[in-house]
Write a structure and sequence with these properties.
The complex is a heterodimer. By secondary structure, chain A is an alpha/beta fold. Chain A is 37% helix and 27% strand. In chain A, strand 12 and strand 13 (265-270) form a beta hairpin. The longest helix of chain B is centred in the middle third of the chain and has 39 residues, at 131-169. The chains are: A alpha/beta, B mainly alpha.
């Protein structure tokens, strides 16, 4: 049974259709990315899946529970990092955690204290537990908000733009933490982001949405290959000339060769990079080329994304 | 309804409010004005300045309109005593309804609209706490402090009045039946009405200040009571206080039914 399944999931606010007939499944333990520009419908989708708002049409099940009919059950088993950290600035880090731990049903005082301590130590916040959340930096607030979202060890975790607005170091910390959570706690994570490096690094599959509708679903690799094209072979030569280019073009596995502006850099399109690379290198050497390096250049997820959403990658 | 979840919300909000001077200041300063500054001025100033004619004339009108039962209480008192007695025991009484309304609406504005303004509402609504538990916890955190402040103000007011008038009257003027009914009967129901209205206002506005400004109109009916009392149209005797309490109980039921109807997490999130 998938952890999350939706069919025709739609949300309308008056005349605006924020989410338009989304169909997708997320398997247990998977990190699934929801990619799209601002206003694409990512937050609304997460709010529906977390039983915060109800769909106008279609349905969604989370761990087998209907998000409308069993909303309380859904809210018990999911954790959510909202768009804003949603922390109580006048409460200390520990008091924030204590409130949410109890709200999510950890009623035993000792169990609650141990769980909070374990998480705050994991996120390097234990020493600051008695500081008011309002005095925390943006990165620390985000870490505390993630800690809050997982305090009850939820089966499914919704993370809405977890690295948005953070500096590179804090972003990396958060990404590392997500990997750790997926590996250590085997949690299903639905990650909404417009940061492609996050999706590329963390997600087993991503869904690109635009104007509320699904554009494509697949693994980052599939999307790169399908949409941005197959990998290219890059050969750097001491000096490239027309004779070398012609000899490579003559090979039947080669579909195109280009000489880059960068002197001595050839980019070769191949049907099967792995199989054809030795033949291409031999052909270059036999034509008198002095090979400096050979690399496979993967198309980026960004290229695929930009092709699909039309340029707003932020 | 799981009462422990409502109490959890209550404790969390209580902690927040007790650290928020923007909320605490009006709740503490306004009662101090009503309980110490105004009665002290009423008692001490006429003695020092030989009460001005205009206030004597105004008081004469008010005394004339008093029911015979109360006029009987005034027999044997000199003009100064009558003025102090009527002012302290009758004229000031409606002000004590301002205290619970003001306190509960300030806290309720912070508790409901404040969460929206500070963008903490979404994580709270995402928890497995039901709408009813959330509403009850937040109503409780508005009601309990407002009742504590009202009760405390009454104690302080009684102490101030008795301390400053004992020598003049030779007996303790407060507490009396009217005031006990007012503070422990009418004030809680008026406070609950204030909370009910503020909840409804808060659900429709974006922030604490906006909610507070709109809920300030709640004081208007109380000021009308004040003028009605001063002109003798209405008097806070035991019967009137009892009747008003019953009316406000009905108003509370109506407002809370409406409040529960309006308090929908989806609406709160989509109206941000």
């Amino acid at each position: 049974m998938p952890s999350i399944e939706t069919e025709g999931l739609t949300k309308r606010f008056g005349s605006l259709t924020a989410v338009d007939h989304l169909n997708f499944d997320v398997e247990a333990g998977e990190i699934f990315g929801l990619l799209g520009p601002n206003g694409a419908g990512k937050t609304t989708t997460i709010r529906m899946l977390a039983s915060l708002i109800s769909p106008s049409e279609g349905y969604a099940r989370v761990s087998g529970h209907d998000v409308v009919k069993e909303s309380l059950k859904v809210r018990e088993i999911v954790g959510i990092l909202t768009e804003n950290p949603s922390l109580y600035d006048r409460l200390t880090a520990y008091e924030n955690m204590e409130f949410f731990a109890e709200a999510y049903g950890i009623t035993d005082r000792v169990e609650r204290r141990d769980r909070i301590r374990e998480l705050l130590e994991l996120f390097d916040l234990w020493e600051r537990r008695d500081d008011k959340a309002g005095n925390f930096s943006k990165g620390m607030k985000q870490k505390l908000a993630i800690t809050r979202a997982i305090v009850h060890n939820p089966e499914i975790l919704f993370l809405d733009e977890p690295t948005s607005g953070l500096d590179p170091k804090s972003s990396k910390d958060i990404r590392d933490l997500m990997e750790e959570l997926s590996r250590r706690e085997n949690q299903t994570i639905l990650l909404s982001t417009h940061r492609l490096e996050d999706a590329d690094r963390l997600c087993s599959r991503v869904m690109i949405i635009k104007d509320g509708g699904s554009v494509v679903v697949g693994s980052p690799e599939e999307l790169r290959n399908k949409i941005a094209g197959t990998p290219l072979l890059e050969i750097r030569l001491r000096k490239a000339d027309e004779r070398i280019v012609r000899s490579v073009e003559a090979l039947e596995q080669v579909s195109a060769v280009s000489l880059d502006a960068d002197p001595g850099r050839m980019l070769i399109s191949l049907d099967d990079v792995e199989a054809a690379t030795p033949l291409v290198v031999r052909s270059v050497v036999e034509a008198g080329g002095m090979v400096l390096s050979v690399n496979v250049v993967e198309p980026s997820l960004e290229e695929a994304y930009l092709k699909l959403v039309g340029g707003d990658s932020e | 309804m799981r009462i422990e979840k409502a109490l959890l919300v209550f404790r969390k909000d209580w902690r927040e409010i007790s650290r928020n001077w923007q909320v605490l200041m009006p709740i503490l300063v306004v009662p101090l004005l009503f309980t110490v500054a105004i009665p002290a001025a009423i008692i001490l100033i006429p003695g020092l300045m030989n009460a001005p004619t205009s206030s004597t004339a105004f008081l004469g009108l008010m005394v004339e309109n008093l029911p015979g039962q109360i006029q009987a209480q005034l027999s044997g008192m000199d003009e100064n005593q009558v003025m102090i007695y009527v002012m302290l025991l009758y004229f000031i009484a409606p002000f004590f309804l301002v205290i619970p309304v003001m306190a509960s609406s300030v806290i309720a504005s912070d508790s409901f609209a404040g969460e929206k303004e500070r963008k903490t509402i979404e994580a709270l609504l995402a928890t497995p706490i039901t709408d009813g538990e959330l509403l009850f916890g937040k109503a409780l955190v508005s009601f309990v402090p407002s009742m504590l402040v009202t009760g405390g103000s009454f104690l302080l007011y009684s102490a101030t009045v008795d301390l400053l008038t004992y020598e003049m009257f030779g007996r303790l003027l407060l507490p009396n039946l009217e005031w006990v009914l007012l503070i422990f009967g009418l004030a809680p129901t008026v406070s609950l009405a204030g909370i009910g209205l503020t909840v409804m206002i808060s659900a429709r506005v974006k922030g604490f200040k906006e909610a507070q400004q709109i809920s300030a109109v709640l004081v208007v009916p109380i000021l009308m009571m004040l003028f009605a009392q001063a002109s003798g149209v209405m008097l806070f005797g035991p019967l009137m206080v009892g009747a008003l309490t019953l009316v406000f109980i009905l108003v509370d039921i109506l407002l809370f039914r409406l409040g529960v109807k309006i308090f929908r997490r989806e609406k709160i999130l989509s109206q941000r």
